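Usage

Read records sequentially. Each one opens with the input sequence:
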Amino acid sequence: MKKILFVVPLPPPIHGASLINNYLNKSKNLKKNFKTYFFNSSQTKNLSEIEIFKFIKLFKFLFSILILTKKIIQIKPDIIYFNPSPSGIGMYRDLIYIFLFKIFSSKIVFHLHGKGFDRNVKSSKILKYILKFLFKNVDLICLSKLLIHDTNLIRDKKKKIYVLNNFAEQNKSKKKKKNKITFIYLSNLIPSKGILTFLNAIKYLNNSNYKNFNSIVIGRKVDEVFYENVTKIINNFKNITYLGSIYGNKKNDEIKKSHVLVFPSKYLNETYPVVLLEAMSAGIPVICYKNGAIPEIIDHNKTGFLVKKYNFVEFAKYMKVYLKNKQLIKNHGLNAKNKWQKNYTFQLYESKLINILNNISTKYKA
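and closes with the structure output:
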């Protein structure tokens, strides 16, 4: 049985990649097919500190390198599975991790959960050279065909690229929807995730005499000043409720009670947002911007609406469509749930990943 060492971020903090890796860590089917070992590559427990340099994080990282080196020597893994960061401080930290893998193993798999390599290597020839060396003889798993281009300048063209979409567990909440149409925002309270666009869209609807609806904002603060500004704006609305940062069953309940997810993210490194899949599993249509691989997830005017031109008026326009036609919400929601069932369950994800890893492992001698 092949031995696989997963060097991946695990919660806390909670974000898309760490949640998915946590499912893999608990996967019984994965353990039936491989001898699995997990090592947490993250040095922070707080999402707001991920891209912030601190000396304590540096010391934790250096210590983790020693522990990981010892683990690799003891385990002698056939494959090392890694989630490299494509940008920021995390990318430079991960370069050291990859150098370490290169020393001990040529059997490396990168599962790419973010994007930004293309942008970074175009601005630095040195970085491009380093990454081309580190990506040599490495198998890649990408979230979507729409994201493969991000590694075109650095990947080993002789190696196959596998595509594996994200997943979301089924929303099993038994909560009933409210009578009034409810729009839900569920993301971090940072400018690039579009919270201000969401609030401005609601203000626009209110000023256009579309007031008979509710709105829910769920998200954690990242920057204190921006958070205070956002909460001040929210307090001026009678039809917006801010619930703070909630997870698990409480979050699922709020999604289930809502009618439409509004996801106005223009985040530069957006890839395959799990929150969209979570909404779809609950039968909730989505209004979102054409960013990353989102056009592959949301089918325009079938499982939601894709906003082509980014501004709050465009988002309000599609919110207005739903306010005028509640039956359309039900139709789009049913389509969304059917698409989730066919494409985005954990069972499907797990089966595909096992096949990919089996395919990769057969290329190497035991």
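Summary fields computed downstream for this record:
- The chain has a mean pLDDT of 93.
- The longest strand covers residues 3-8.
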